[in-house]
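Hey,

The postdoc asked me to send both predictions to you directly instead of through the lab channel. I've kept everything plain text so nothing gets mangled by the mail client. Protein one:
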Amino acid sequence: MIQAIILGAIQGITEFLPISSSGHLVLIREVLGFKTVGSLSFDAVLQLATTLAVIVYFWKDLITIVRVRDVKNKILIWAIVVGTIPAVILGFIFEQKIDSVFRNAHTVAWALIAGSVLFFIAEKYGAKKQDFPKELSVTRGFLVGCFQMLALIPGMSRSGSTISGGLLTGMKREEVVRFSFLLSVPILLGSGLKKLFDLGSTGSIDASLIVGSLAAFVVGLASIHFLIKYLRNHTLNVFIVYRVLLAVVVLLFL
């Protein structure tokens, strides 16, 4: 139960901060020796809990998107649809390989470094485009969705990859952050529900999974609120430094 709460809290914090939730879950298991609670299925259900946090936090936005059929919301809907497709296809094809090959500490460390390089490039070149930002379009939504594919590798970070992709396409920072959260809903909701049904069919849903999910939901709400306010006036640089330092520690001591 304690392991589940810790994993849930880690998921809630790291799902939305650009430091990789899946990578941190892999690392925390290795460091603390969490062997009883594991697997991609458990993590996917925790992701489902943080996805519900997104839905609750952006409830008014989602209602507006559905009810108000103006041009801007139609573009947003189609951008989410086409932006979801790349990660769905890649995840469907390589799910088993990703689960077996990439879920280890050293792979996570190198992914943390690779993601940091991507964030640095996005801040360096994306910042130049902020004076004349471009509006969200279906094409830009698809391009950001291609960056979302990187999140299948533990250590890359879904939010960090999609925010970087949006900055590189020239979108305004605040709009990129909002779109990144909304884009996460379909794929995380679908993946989490699938794993939840799989666990339910085998009778693997227990109190620890429920408690861990509650922890992920509550902490996730706070994490969303923090990141939205923080990135309005700050860059990804602090997260780049954290990721590189964490990667160095992992490579040296794990």
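Protein two:
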Amino acid sequence: MTATTVRGLLAEARATLTGDEAWGEAELLLAHALDRDRAWLVAHRDDAVAPALAGQFHCCLSRRVAGEPVAYIVGHRGFHALDFVLTPDVLIPRPETELLVDAVLQRIPQSAKVDIADLGTGSGVIALAIAHARTQARVLATDASAAALDVARGNARRLGIDNIDFAQGDWCAALGQRRFDGIVSNPPYIAEFDPHLAQGDLRFEPRSALASGLDGLDAIRTIVRSAPAHLQPGGWLLLEHGFDQGAAVRGLLQRSGLADVFTARDLEGRERVSGAVARNAAT
């Protein structure tokens, strides 16, 4: 009998999976099944794989063929140079959300002692990326989901990040009477009946973290309406949104009484993050 090898399993997976990411997904799934990293796979292409481990890989491959996201199968995903544990209770972080984190970090000097709130933290990727990069800041991560907060707390412990606190509650309701130097959020912003919700990875992600009302803007409306009361004078609000929602979100921010409304574009030139600043008391 011919031994099953790393090379053979990767070839099998590449022939089975579809899409532009097939090769990368095959490597991620095999590395997970073998409890190795992808660099090890490159250096050991012709190594034999024990039948039990090959069986685990085939199980992972079957789950992916059925549509389950790779991030849920392997249980983690990299974001902003950190690695986060994920479960189906939380949204899978996307690369475009790193723009939101970068926009926050641009507003916080390295040594600044500021209070930042992350609304709807999910797995904690935004809050923990900020807390990791700005160790003098204090970050409050909130979510309405207790299960999501458990994932975020676990990521904080595993990454050794301790300048962060957690609170359960719906958007600004979780903030109590506190005011912050900055509030950030990647809220759900897909329209409730968008057909994409029934396609691809989105089918497996928590719907409450994806969809928000008929036009996708209900959560953003709630945050924009409530956030000014929780901002220090000169404090800022930053929101991720859909590529075609920039004008609508800017309008909401302008009508809220916030100043200096702006929108930033992602690497593909799409409007992705909008924000504004709380007016000073004398303004």
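Summary for protein two, as requested: The chain has two domains: 6-66, 87-277.

Thanks,
C.
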